[in-house]
Amino acid sequence: MADERALDEVVTFTSDLIRIDTTNRGGGDCRERPAAEYAAARLAEAGLEPVLLERTPGRANVVARLEGTDPSADALLVHGHLDVVPAEAADWSVHPFSGEVRDGVVWGRGAVDMKNMDAMILAVVRAWAREGVRPRRDIVIAFTADEEASAEDGSGFLADRHAHLFEGCTEGVSESGAFTFHDGDGRQLYPIAAGERGTAWMKLTARGRAGHGSKVNRENAVTRLAAAVTRIGEHEWPLRLTPTVRAALTELAAVYGIETDLSDVDTLLDKLGTAGKLVEATVRNSANPTMLDAGYKINVIPGEAVARVDGRYLSGAEDEFRATMDRLTGPDVDWEFEHHEVALQAPVDSPTYARMRAAIEEFAPEGHVVPYCMSGGTDAKQFSRLGITGYGFAPLKLPEGFDYQALFHGVDERVPVEALHFGVRVLDRFLRTA
Ligand SMILES: [Zn+2]
Predict the structure, then answer these.
(1) What one-character-per-residue DSSP string does 102-136 give?
(2) Is the pLDDT of residue 1 over 80?
(3) Residue 133's pLDDT is what?
(4) Do the beta carbons of residue 64 and residue 48 sit within 8 Å?
(5) What is the distance in A from the centroid of ligand 1 to the CA of 36?
(6) 24, 59 Cβ separation under 8 angstroms
(7) Does residue 405 carry a pLDDT above 90?
(8) What is the pLDDT of residue 379?
(9) CA of 80 to the centre of ligand 1 (A)
(10) 217 alpha carbon to ligand 1 midpoint, in Å?
(11) Which of 10, 76, 108, 137 would be a feasible disulfide site paired with 123, CB 3.0-4.6 Å?
C-alpha cells in the first residue's frame, strides 16, 4: 500500500513538473531536458540508475530499469511523456505553468496529460525503495520527449536507437485510460485503452491547367480539389469492429442491461447515450479535411491546389482505407501520407488486463471497468515496433464535473489531489501484481 509520503510526493511532483514549461510547439520547438533531469534525479534518489538520452540537444528522454525478482518473466514498460501542448495564459483562470494547488486541485498544463502520471510513477517507485518492494517482472520506466509532435526526438528515437534498453519488454502501460468517465446518470466507467486507431495525415494535390480567370477551363485545379474534399468529408465510412471495440460494446451493453446487437451498432450507440461517446469514434475509419491551400490572385486559375486531411484507420482496416482514398480522390487528385502511424490492438483477455481491472475495482468498487480503443495515438505506437503491446492505464478517480476528455489539451487543465492519490494507490497495486 502506498504510504503517506507517496501521497504527498505525487502532488509535489505533479506541481513541480507543471512549473517546468515543456511546451511542444512542434517543428522541434521544445525543451524537455529540465523536466527529464528532474525525473531522473527523483529516480536516482530511489536507487535507480536512470540514463538521459537525446537525439537533439535539449530534447531529453529518461530510461531506467527496476529489476524484478523473476528473471524469466517478461518485462513491463511504464512510460509517460514530459512535453505538453501549448497553453494561452490569457484564457486560463490560473497561470498554466504555475502548478498551483488551490482548494485541493492542482492546476496547470499537463495536470492530466500527463505530468500527473509521470508524478505517480515517480511516487510509486520511491515508495517501493523505502519499503524494499521488488516487482516480479522487470519494470522499465521511460519518460519521453516529443509525444505531442512527431515523437522523433522521443519514443521514436528510443525505439530506433536504444532498443536494448527495452529488452524483454512485451507490454507497456501509459496515458489515456483508467480515468473516471461519468455518464451523467450516476454511473462511473473506467475505460482501459486496449488499442489505438492508426494515423494517416494526408496531403492531397490537384493538378490542372493554369490560366486566366475569365476563360473557359474544365481542368480547374481548385474545382477538382474542392470536389475531392467534399467527397471525402461527406463519405460514410462502413462499420468495422475490431476485437477491442467489440468487447467495449459488449461490456458497455452489459453494464446498461441492453441487449447486444452488434449488427445494428448505431442503434446500440444511441441506447448507450453518453457512454456511447467512448466508442463512437472508433467503430469506423475516418477522414476529416482540415486545411486548404490554393491560388494567389482572384483572376488567375492556379495549376495546382493542395488540401490536408486528417485520416484515422482501425486495426485491420488500412488497406480498405487506402483503397477508399484512391476512389474518393479520383483520377485528377493525388494523395500521399505526410505522417503515417500504425493502428494498435491489445488483447482484453490477457493477465495484464485482468490485473489492471482488479486494481481499479479494488479502489473504485462502484466503477465499471470497460475496454476501449483510442481514437488517436500515443507513444505506444512507437514502442510497438519493439514488440510491446500497449495499454492506456493512467488511473485517476475524477469527481463529477471533471470532464477528462475536455481537460485533455483544454483550458484550465487541472486534477484533484484526491484523484492523484487514487492514481498512486491503483498504480502501486497494479505494478506490484503485474
Ligand atoms: Zn498525452
Answers:
(1) ETTEEESTTTTTTHHHHHHHHHHHHHHHHHT---S
(2) no
(3) 95
(4) yes
(5) 16
(6) no
(7) no
(8) 96
(9) 8
(10) 48
(11) 10
